[in-house]
Design goal:
alpha/beta, Rossmann fold, 3 domains, 4-stranded parallel β-sheet, 43% helix, globular, binds 1,3-dihydroxyacetonephosphate, binds iron/sulfur cluster
């Protein structure tokens, strides 16, 4: 490994993007029976479901019908901390399960598939990241929630897309210089909005990276009345065309609250389920992943999120397998920056509502 690591010298590791798993189609009767069995299992295991907006719509419905939650990664983290249930079943990707375990070490945290990772997490190995931090001791280390427990343990702050701007605005006001990882697009966006001095790790999301700016311009010309909603993990030229840039929750709220009748949405297509539920009269158009240089490995649907299904959820509830385990010392250290984020989010919320 080189002695000096500059952001420019960080080359994004080639992440193997898996193909989408194919789950058996269920008839309406089978679906109802499966949901009913899972609800009984949740009750008998004293377990609650915590699901992300990108997961299968049946899982999202089941989570809400059974008293669990469907949320963005900030709310998923918070929700787990206010549950009396002894087991949290996290339907999402691995960093979400790890965050739940770090915040609730006394609870059992299960996931339908422990292989459900994230390209951002995979692209930021803890040893190389730690070395990068060692090179820049005068920088405050801020990491995106989409990272491993070991990377979080090396940080001063963890942020999700839902709270990144307020936290980095706060750090900018204190005159701090930031070392940011792993998402270069989100990092660049934060830097532009807050003006903070930042060193950027060069990771990216395999799903949002595929949105195409030139093809998006064409679609906007076809739908001039549509508002453009973009998740900040998207490339700069896509963010530049947005009417709203924000977390999954912020984009869902925009569909509900904005007067526009149609929306072009640049994020994982799993989000359409909640958007349609809250605003069935609105027209939703997928932002293009085709066009110049298209690979369409994900086609706007995260293959790791797609690893969660009713079938493997029922299996883990039956067997208790796929439990998240984290080295206690790493967990203890990772908890501080995550808790710092949750505390900041709470006081920021109070400020806004008070
Ligand atoms: P949110 O926190 O906005 O839900 O984003 C999580 C994520 O992984 C987006 O790709
Ligand atoms: Fe990670 Fe991207 Fe999947 Fe979100 S959509 S979990 S950032 S790979």
């Amino acid at each position: 490994m080189n002695d000096t690591i500059s952001p420019e010298s960080i080359v994004q590791r080639q992440i193997q993007v898996p193909s989408h798993p194919v789950w058996p189609e269920l008839t309406d009767l089978e679906l109802a029976a499966s949901k009913s069995r899972i609800k009984k299992l949740l009750e008998s295991r004293n377990a609650v479901l915590v699901a992300h907006y990108y997961t299968d719509s049946n899982l999202q419905e089941l989570a809400e019908e059974s008293g669990g939650c469907v949320a963005d990664s900030l709310e998923m983290a918070r929700f787990g901390t206010v549950q009396s249930a002894k087991t949290l079943v996290v339907c999402g990707v691995r960093f979400m399960g790890e965050t739940a375990k770090i915040l609730n070490p006394e609870k059992r945290v299960l996931m339908p598939d422990l292989n459900a990772t994230c390209s951002l997490d995979e692209g930021c190995p803890a040893d190389a990241f730690s070395h990068f931090c060692d090179q820049h001791p005068d920088h405050t280390v801020v990491v995106y929630a989409n990272t491993s427990a070991a990377v979080k343990a090396r940080s001063d702050w963890v942020v999700t897309s839902g709270i990144a701007l307020p936290i980095l605005t706060h750090l900018a006001a204190r005159g701090e210089k930031v070392l940011w990882a792993p998402d270069k697009h989100l990092g660049r966006y934060i830097q532009r909005v807050t003006g903070i001095e930042m060193l950027l790790w060069q990771g990216s999301c395999a799903v949002h990276e595929e949105f195409k700016s030139i093809a998006l311009e064409r679609i906007r010309r076809l739908h001039p009345e549509a508002a453009v909603l973009v998740h900040p993990e998207s490339p700069e030229a896509v963010i530049d065309q947005a009417d709203v840039v924000g977390s999954t929750t912020a984009l869902i709220q925009a569909v509900k609250k904005m007067k526009n009748k149609s929306f072009i949405v640049a994020t994982d297509s799993g989000i359409f389920h909640k958007m349609k539920q809250l605003a069935p009269e609105k027209q939703l158009i997928e932002a293009p992943t085709a066009g110049e240089g298209a690979t369409c490995q994900s086609c706007a649907h995260c293959p790791w999120m797609a690893m969660n299904s009713l079938q493997n959820l029922e299996q883990v509830l039956l067997t208790g397998e796929n439990e998240i385990e984290i080295d206690p010392e790493i967990s203890r250290r990772a908890r501080l920056p995550i808790q710092r984020m949750l505390d900041f989010a709470r006081s920021h919320q109070h400020e806004k509502s008070g």
